[in-house]
């Protein structure tokens, strides 16, 4: 499983850190580590966290390895998201590409056609929007560029997507993205996009207080890394 490989790649950094704060909000999960780095992910409220109430003070790796249900993976990916190479550049990685067809996989995914002649969206949600197809219909796709949102790590669909999509260029992006360069390069990814807090306190409070994507957007910015 790709998520297991990502955890293994980032294990050294994770083992150096402790969790000093965590908030599992209705839309997003946020974690703050003892070096003041903050990680964010989507919350998928399925399953139970049997160590709830005991996470603060724990080693980040010891919590991140628990991935046996979507809610635990929400916490794990938020922890992984907090680890950064420090080499991010402002902007959206999709602007680096152009071509015929772009495919995207995520919850309520939205991709501007921009430099592409066509857009195909696969929506993880139960009520697809923006003319997206339900992900349950995905059996394979050929694209010039494929954009996989990091939420695919949480709902455990990323392995299926990578196995069945043929793309000249592959991007991992979104709020649940992670900087696991070696693992992602191994699977053909060329770029990583991330949503990075610029006002950590407000971003954390917005998540804890049930804020929406629109509300959170005031306190974060898009960044990316070409790998």
From TrEMBL:
Report the residue ranges that make up the Putative heavy-metal chelation domain in this protein: 95-225
Q: Where is the DUF4213 domain?
A: 7-84
Its name, as the record gives it, is Heavy-metal chelation domain-containing protein
């Amino acid at each position: 499983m790709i998520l297991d490989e990502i955890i293994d790649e980032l294990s050294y950094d994770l083992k150096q850190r402790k969790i000093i704060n965590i908030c599992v909000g209705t839309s997003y999960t946020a974690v703050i580590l003892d070096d003041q780095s903050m990680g964010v992910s989507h919350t998928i409220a399925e399953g139970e966290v049997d160590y709830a109430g005991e996470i603060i003070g724990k080693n980040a790796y010891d919590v991140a390895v628990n991935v046996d249900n979507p809610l635990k993976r929400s916490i794990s990916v938020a922890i992984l998201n907090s680890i950064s190479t420090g080499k991010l550049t402002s902007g959206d990685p999709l602007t680096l590409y152009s071509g015929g067809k772009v495919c995207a996989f995520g919850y309520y995914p939205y991709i501007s056609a921009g430099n592409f002649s066509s857009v195909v969206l696969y929506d993880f949600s139960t009520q697809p929007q923006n003319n997206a197809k339900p992900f349950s219909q995905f059996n394979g796709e050929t694209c010039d560029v494929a954009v996989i949102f990091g939420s695919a790590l949480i709902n455990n669909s990323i392995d299926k997507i990578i196995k069945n999509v043929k793309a000249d260029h592959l991007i991992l992006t979104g709020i649940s993205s992670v900087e696991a360069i070696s693992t992602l390069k191994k699977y053909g990814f060329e770029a990583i996009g991330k949503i990075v807090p610029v006002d950590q306190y407000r971003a954390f409070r917005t998540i804890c207080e049930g804020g929406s994507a629109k509300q959170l957007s005031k306190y974060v910015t898009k960044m990316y890394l070409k790998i």
